């Protein structure tokens, strides 16, 4: 039985353009592979060792399907000694094809992706594995996780995309400017098939973060107690009863402005505050309900905070997942602790650095209990580690790892730089000695 070379005949006007586009795309993939390592700043797309095998397949094209006997080169002549690399059976008669020194029955030359025979004249090679061109594109051309389309090529003809350093969420660069919502907590972009919840103050929250979100002041009290217990477990008990309120973004920003000796280094987004002035703050009294993609029915209440000690209150943004809320609480409570214990006028890098260390340590006891050698803190974490709905889900666990990653990799000098320096000191000398040294000198021990 003769096996005929399959030719795909296309009408020139209609199909040649799509064929050309496909070639341009293959070209772009190949060039992106070559260029990716040379492009600082742009997150690159890389497939190890993979390449499009244009030169190879071109050289194979004419003799690849030897039709009948005469014009076939010597080494393609059928003989009983050839073994099909697909089915491992002898190739006795009929057609076969050679590829990279191996031989196949036509029906055994199959795409590594879909497993079906490759009958087209052109195919893609990755290492020694052949693919249908379309299967290779499906496999290798990155798809956007926001709009779910193939990521387009840029003006230079390269596939350029953004990729979140922790979540590895890949997306078209255009979504950074087309009002695609970003979760205020985990930073992931909203995908077009999964709408986020609007918190009503310009922030959006994804469903994973919403799962453990803390929505009102009453809701947050048990977590606040757990954080205070965590401090106590490290011999940093606070005797004063400092009120803690959950607030909207607007209220938090206003309170920050109302602080006379406020941070000079106010970050762009404020997550929490340790108040030292007497102020009237509007807090969230009753949690809102979720209606559609919004929150409805929230009740707030203005509250005048009077000074009973050097710290008047701790404020935290509402609507954040439990682990992030706790991390913020630990940071702000550490500011309070420093103030109440008489640490004054620390430079922001030292102060916020050590506050971030407390935040990080608390997350550590929640996310990986027993990791640090902190017997007292670890025993506390077992009682406080389960969230309101019982044990932590794997999504919540991953979120906790993200918050730790964020603290450790923050690029600002006071938060990120401060954390890395303070954490190094704590790892070397322990928390107590580090704090004593800060108390005496205002600086971290070297
Ligand atoms: Zn075979
Ligand atoms: Zn295939
Ligand atoms: Zn996209
Ligand atoms: Zn989120
Ligand atoms: Zn701070």
Automatic annotation (TrEMBL):
GO MF term set: metal ion binding; ubiquitin binding
SUPFAM superfamilies: Glucocorticoid receptor-like (DNA-binding domain)
Record PROSITE patterns: LIM_DOMAIN_1 (PS00478), LIM_DOMAIN_2 (PS50023)
Positions of the LIM zinc-binding domain: 82-142
Identification of the protein by name: LIM zinc-binding domain-containing protein
InterPro entries attached to this UniProt entry: DA1-like, DA1-like_dom, Znf_LIM
PANTHER family reported for this sequence: PROTEIN DA1-RELATED 2
CDD domains, A to Z: LIM_DA1 (cd09396)
Species assigned in the record: Rubus argutus
Keyword vocabulary terms for this entry: LIM domain, Metal-binding, Repeat, Zinc
């Amino acid at each position: 039985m003769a096996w005929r070379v399959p030719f795909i005949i296309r009408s020139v006007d209609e199909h040649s353009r799509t064929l050309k586009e496909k070639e341009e795309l293959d070209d772009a993939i190949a060039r992106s592979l070559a260029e990716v390592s040379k492009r600082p700043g742009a997150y690159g797309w890389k497939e190890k060792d993979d390449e499009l095998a244009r030169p190879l397949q071109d050289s194979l094209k004419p003799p690849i399907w030897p039709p009948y006997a005469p014009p076939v080169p010597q080494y393609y002549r059928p003989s009983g000694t050839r073994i099909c690399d697909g089915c491992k059976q002898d190739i006795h008669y009929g057609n076969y094809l050679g590829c990279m020194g191996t031989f196949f029955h036509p029906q055994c030359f199959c795409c590594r992706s879909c497993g079906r025979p490759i009958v087209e004249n052109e195919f893609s090679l990755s290492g020694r594995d052949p693919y249908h061109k379309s299967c290779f594109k499906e496999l290798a051309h990155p798809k956007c996780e926001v709009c779910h389309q193939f990521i387009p090529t840029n003006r230079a003809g390269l596939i350029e995309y953004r990729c979140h350093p922790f979540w590895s969420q890949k997306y078209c660069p255009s979504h950074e400017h087309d009002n695609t919502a970003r979760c205020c907590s985990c930073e992931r972009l909203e995908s077009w098939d999964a709408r986020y919840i609007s918190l009503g103050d310009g922030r959006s929250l994804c469903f994973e973060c919403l799962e453990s979100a803390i929505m009102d002041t009453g809701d947050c009290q048990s977590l606040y107690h757990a954080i205070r217990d965590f401090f106590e477990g490290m011999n940093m008990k606070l005797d004063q009863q400092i009120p803690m309120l959950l607030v909207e973004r607007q209220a938090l920003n206003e309170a920050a402005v109302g602080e006379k000796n406020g941070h000079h280094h106010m970050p762009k987004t404020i997550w929490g505050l340790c108040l030292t002035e007497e102020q009237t703050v509007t807090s969230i009294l009753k949690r809102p309900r979720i209606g559609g993609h919004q929150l409805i029915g929230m009740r707030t209440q203005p509250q005048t905070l009077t000074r009973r000690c050097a710290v008047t209150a701790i404020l935290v943004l509402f609507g954040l997942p439990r682990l992030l809320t706790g991390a913020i609480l630990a940071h702000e409570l550490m500011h309070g602790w420093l103030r109440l214990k008489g640490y004054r006028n620390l430079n922001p890098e030292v102060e916020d650095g050590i506050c971030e260390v407390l935040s990080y340590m608390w997350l550590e006891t929640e996310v990986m209990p027993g990791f640090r050698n902190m017997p007292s803190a670890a025993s506390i974490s077992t009682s406080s580690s389960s969230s309101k709905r019982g044990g932590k889900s794997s999504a919540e666990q991953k979120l906790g790892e993200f918050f730790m990653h964020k603290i450790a990799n923050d690029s600002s000098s006071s938060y990120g730089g401060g954390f890395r320096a303070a954490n190094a000191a704590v790892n070397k000398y322990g928390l107590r000695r580090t704090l004593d040294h800060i108390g005496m000198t205002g600086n971290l021990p070297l």
